[in-house]
Amino acid sequence: MRKIEHIGIAVKSLKQSIPLYEKLLNTHCYKTELVATENVATAFFKTGDNKIELLESTDAEGVVAKFIEKKGEGIHHIAFDVEDISAEMKRLQEEGFILLNTTPKKGADNKLVCFLHPKQTQGVLIELCQEIK
Ligand code: ZN
Fold this sequence. Notes:
Layout: E1 3-10, H1 14-25, E2 31-35, E3 40-47, E4 50-57, H2 63-71, E5 74-81, H3 85-94, E6 105-107, E7 111-116, E8 126-131
Parallel strand pairs: 1-4, 5-8
Antiparallel strand pairs: 1-5, 2-3, 3-4, 6-7, 7-8
Zinc ion (ZN) binds next to β1 and β5.
């Protein structure tokens, strides 16, 4: 794992949260993207080397909707940048972590992603992401 690639924040409404984060970070949202396979709409912000991803569920039964129902809005996941996602997935699996997807899948912002089950990471949902070149 090379660095934190972004922090994902679950929100009820991008329409309300985008202007709030623009004010907070004093920067514009540089990208919004629908990830149909995950039933989420995302919005991205950069501040210095750091990236924030806001996530709004597009489906009342989606994982982000369920997360908000249980825990409320807030930090949803931490994503780590990896050079070779397949190698990293193999390594983590051998270390006993449970992968939520067994093959890398296409995520937002031109990334291949894999999530780890939060049961083994003390309640923190971890995402691995590798830039698609
Ligand atoms: Zn993410």
